[in-house]
Write a structure and sequence with these properties.
The mean pLDDT is about 80. The protein is an alpha+beta fold.
Length: about 280
């Protein structure tokens, strides 16, 4: 039971860290947090809508946040990595849940706010979404309202793979309203979706496999971080050699990677290639 207790304690600690960060950067559009232990310390990859509010002038806010994480949670050398959501903010469930909660606090009627959120998500290209608002909506009694459009999955392993969920609360005079947003993203692939390849498609894939350069896979390099690797692989880049041949402008043009991250990657790539070889 010692090992199980250790895992549970670690998971609880991560949840407390996430809640603490969400509270500290309120208003910056928190979109998610990935905590990973590395030989250099603890890497915290944070997805936000407004990075400037998190970093602060001269990095004052982020330095303060790092110190508080060490003092309150005893994290080993926390290294905070800030990533901007960009144009995909409407497909991030956590950001949309917070925006909906803010709209309710500003006095929007819950039906108007719910339908507006669903419309914005679906217009962004989502396969489906569901908004749930619960609390004292119109009277003294608690009730729940659901706004659903498109395709939604509710249970099973598929939910973990294709559904993105976000939670937030709106503090109003009658009481607190709970907000939950569930989104099925445009690139979600369901188990029952079958695509039969044509002979032409098979030939094209075979040619691509033949042309693929031999090199070190991005996933084998821990310094890059899993979130950055996913974005690069989505853009069709599979080896660090391919990435090294690209300019800073080309790397920055990849969705989810800004110019600052691109410059940092470019600086580290030469060193990483030498170490690998």
């Amino acid at each position: 039971m010692v090992a199980e207790r250790k895992f549970i304690k670690e998971k609880v600690k991560r949840m407390l860290v996430k809640e603490f960060i969400m509270k500290e950067i309120e208003g910056a559009g928190f979109g998610g947090l990935d905590i990973q232990r590395t030989p250099m310390g603890t890497r915290l990859s944070m997805l936000v809508e407004r990075p400037g509010l998190v970093i602060g002038r001269g990095g004052a806010n982020i330095n303060k946040l790092s110190k508080e994480l060490i003092e309150k949670f005893e994290l080993d050398n926390p290294q905070i990595e800030i990533q901007e959501v960009g144009s995909n903010a409407a497909l991030n469930a956590q950001i949309m849940a917070e925006k909906l909660a803010e709209a309710l606090e500003r006095g929007w009627h819950f039906r108007r706010a719910g339908h507006a959120t669903v419309k914005r998500i679906m217009d962004a290209g989502a396969k489906g979404c569901q908004v749930i608002i619960s609390g004292k909506l119109t009277g003294e009694r608690h009730r729940t309202e659901k706004f659903t459009e498109g395709h939604i999955k509710y249970c099973g392993e598929t939910v973990k793979e294709v559904m993105d969920e976000g939670y937030a609360v709106a503090k109003l005079k009658p009481g607190i309203l709970g907000v939950k947003v569930r989104i099925m993203k445009p690139d979600a692939k369901l188990p029952d979706e079958i695509h039969i390849k044509t002979i032409e498609e098979t030939k094209v894939e075979e040619k691509k496999e033949e042309k693929k350069p031999a090199g070190t896979k991005l996933s084998d390099v821990k310094e890059l971080g899993p979130s950055v690797v996913k974005k690069l692989e989505k853009a069709g880049i599979e080896t660090i050699e391919e990435l090294y041949d690209m300019s800073v402008e080309e790397i920055a043009s990849i969705e989810g990677i800004n110019e600052k991250v691109a410059k940092t990657l470019k600086e580290k790539l030469g060193k990483i290639i030498k170490e690998v070889k």
